[in-house]
Inverse folding.
């Protein structure tokens, strides 16, 4: 069987760097406000007349704000594997951006092992596949499940 | 601020919540006729109809004001149709109030009704990759319970809340709703029953997540002058003292349905006001009242845990103390400040455009002393609070 071609599940939301992918936001050139998903036509900050934006990569690491899983198959347009595989979703705080971004958790991590404040990093993973393509989306992966004794959380995220 | 903006609630009516599978117009008409009878008024007395829209029932749903007017019999009244997701009812109520306060209407009818499909709410069909509500299903599989569960887990992580705390909310509301003739699930559940139901989105179980229901609710609003003429006196008439329909302020720093991310607060000097804190606050300010004045509250318990968030958001207790309020029995009927005496969404399920109006119906019955089997004794001030997808606040303060 021929290998599937990898394509993003949505264009322009993240880079396709296999090792260090990043979400793509947009920054208003007038007031420097940052938006994800990106704004391209008008700045949403009250009072800012900005109409020009530069593409900006968001931080690749953050800390868990909250997390959950989905035990039942969601309705379309979610494309579920058959049989349906439960998956987890995490909300991740990005320190520099002062924002929280959602994403699926990589498969194979038990959410019972997660906690708020835990460091995670952005990776690319499979959202779904068809006969020709594997559709990629961003996912969050714990950086290290068990910090070594004495190591601070800050050390772990570096 | 003194309250010069009150209007009178002369009638309320509901079609029982359920999964009846009939046309939504039927539920709305039943509720409207009940509200008219409750007010002692005729359809011909109504000069303005505000419909709370439903997007799930085709074109008639989008033009609810005209749809209900036609069903009750065309008579040339003025109409408005309002969509604000779960907050649609409050928007319709607000439009009706504005007409009355502007002197353009004497008797306004506000109606909302819905027929819902089984299972998770799904976005409107078709391929629509520029609609965030479509995209969150497509790219994340983030259902509504996903968001409810993220908030619930956050309470556990920040305040040490437990799954038993959440289950106790459901158990309390099931006791409240057991005697409510309009509730879809008038059944008492013990904490163990709740915890034994299937996990849907960790930490929330099936019995802790609001179902989707059919139902209808209607309110007859009039000017205070009309009410006085009609009734001869208005000493015991329920009044709408305030309606809040606020949006969030920028930057919005709490993740909200159906967004992928919060706004970025980087480089913003102001301390952001959490959206849910601002909703009731606007109603309190408008009415010149505060949380200490309340006798009861109907809050939007899309999940058991979310009810606890609302305790804090509407000022019943400081942040992080909602579990204590619940466990002390303060929010049970007979307690200091009963919350969701109707049984709440957990006993009703959500009939989206009717829900904010159903909250107003319940508070009205409570303030009149007509809430048989679930009465909050001596209630004089009640608040509703609710939130619609995409940033629609909804809060109604009612007084007697």
């Amino acid at each position: 069987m021929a290998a599937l071609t990898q394509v993003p599940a949505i264009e322009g939301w993240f880079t396709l760097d296999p090792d260090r992918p990043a979400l793509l936001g947009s920054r208003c050139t007038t007031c420097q406000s940052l938006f994800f998903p990106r704004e391209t036509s008008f700045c949403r900050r009250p009072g800012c007349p900005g109409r020009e934006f530069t593409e900006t990569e968001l931080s690749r690491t953050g800390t868990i704000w909250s997390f959950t899983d989905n035990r039942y198959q969601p309705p379309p347009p979610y494309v579920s594997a058959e049989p349906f595989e439960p998956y987890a979703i995490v909300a991740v705080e990005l320190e520099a951006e002062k924002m929280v971004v959602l994403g699926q958790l990589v498969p194979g991590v038990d959410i019972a092992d997660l906690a708020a404040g835990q460091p995670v990093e952005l990776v690319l993973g499979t959202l779904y596949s068809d006969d020709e393509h594997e559709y990629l989306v961003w996912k969050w992966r714990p950086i290290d499940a068990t910090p070594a004794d004495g190591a601070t959380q800050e050390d772990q995220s570096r | 601020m003194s309250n010069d903006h009150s209007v009178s609630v002369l009638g309320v009516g509901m079609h029982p919540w359920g999964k009846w599978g009939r046309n939504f117009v039927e539920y709305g008409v039943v509720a409207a006729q009940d509200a008219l009878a409750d007010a002692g008024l005729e359809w011909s007395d109504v000069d303005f109809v505000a419909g709370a829209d439903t997007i799930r029932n085709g074109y008639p749903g989008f033009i609810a004001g005209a749809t209900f007017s036609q069903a009750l019999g065309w008579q040339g009244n003025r109409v408005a149709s309002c969509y604000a997701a779960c907050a649609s009812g409050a928007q319709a109520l607000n439009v009706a109030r504005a007409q009355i306060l502007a002197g353009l209407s004497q008797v306004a009818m506000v109606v909302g009704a819905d027929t819902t499909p089984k299972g998770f709410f799904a976005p409107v069909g078709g391929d629509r990759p520029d609609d965030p509500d479509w995209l969150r299903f497509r790219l994340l599989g983030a259902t509504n319970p996903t968001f409810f569960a993220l908030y619930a887990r956050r309470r556990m992580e920040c305040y040490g809340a437990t799954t038993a705390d959440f289950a106790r909310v459901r158990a309390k509301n099931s006791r409240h709703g057991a005697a409510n003739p309009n509730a879809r699930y008038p059944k008492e559940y013990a904490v163990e029953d709740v915890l034994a139901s299937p996990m849907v989105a960790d930490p929330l179980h099936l019995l802790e997540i609001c179902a989707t229901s059919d139902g209808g609710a209607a309110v007859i609003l009039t000017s205070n002058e009309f009410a006085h003429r009609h009734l001869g006196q208005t000493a015991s008439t329920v009044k709408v003292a305030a309606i809040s329909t606020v949006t969030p302020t920028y930057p919005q720093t709490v993740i909200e349905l159906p967004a992928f991310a919060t706004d970025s607060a980087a480089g913003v000097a102001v301390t952001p006001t959490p959206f849910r804190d601002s909703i009731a606050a606007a109603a309190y300010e408008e009415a010149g009242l505060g949380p200490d004045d309340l006798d009861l509250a109907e809050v939007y318990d899309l999940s058991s845990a979310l009810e606890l968030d609302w305790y804090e958001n509407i000022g019943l207790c400081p942040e992080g103390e909602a579990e204590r309020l619940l466990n002390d029995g303060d929010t049970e009927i007979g307690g200091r400040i009963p919350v969701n005496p109707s049984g709440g969404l957990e006993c009703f399920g959500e009939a989206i455009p009717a829900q904010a109006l159903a909250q107003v119906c319940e508070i009205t019955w409570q303030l009149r002393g007509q809430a048989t089997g679930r009465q909050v004794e001596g209630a004089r001030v009640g608040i509703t609070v609710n939130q619609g997808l995409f940033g629609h606040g909804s809060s109604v303060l009612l007084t007697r």
In short: Strands of chain A lie at 5-8, 24-28, 34-35, 53-57, 61-70, 87-94, 99-105, 119-129, 133-142. Residues 147-158 of chain A have pLDDT under 50 and may be disordered. Helices of chain A lie at 153-157.
